[in-house]
Amino acid sequence: MKTKIIAALLLVFFLSSCRLALYLPSSDTIDENEYGSFIKIVHKTESNIYGELIAIDSSKIIVLSDDTKKCKTVSLSNVEHFTLKYANGANYGWTIPVYTLATISHGWFLVLTAPINLIVTISINAQGANAFKYSDKNMTFEKLKMFARYPQGIPSNIDIDSIRFVTISK
Q1: Is residue 74 a part of any domain in this protein?
Q2: pTM of the predicted model, to two decimals?
Q3: Tens of pLDDT, residues 147-170
Q4: Residue 48 sits in which domain range?
Q5: 102 membership: H or E segment, kind and range
């Protein structure tokens, strides 16, 4: 009985996912996106900031915060770590239960093949979800500009406070 409960909880865990930023494009429409990429900044002294990357220059990053729906400015010297996601990854979550259950046809070899199928499908799902991510380990602040809403800086006729959070219905 415990095994069935644990298996059901694991299945629910694998099928659940975090909320995605709606302004991120799908992998086939990356070149058509007019918004900045999703960025999570681990701040050295304050709380973490996450939201849409608006602009970056030689001294600061401007992020439209998902929490406050307003732009926040972070000095580059206060950035401990950042993670950037520029598109929604492929969702292969359905393969985990389907391919694991498909091992029923293997008979008694199920004892060997079910864990192998489970490991492989989980690793493929994890790779698909992380396919469109960068971090400070493999990207500089200079290259980070390419993923901003305003890669050449905020135009002089746009007030930072007038930039609003994008509501996209899907």
Answers
A1: yes
A2: 0.63
A3: 888 888 888 888 777 777 665 444
A4: 20-89+130-162
A5: helix 95-102
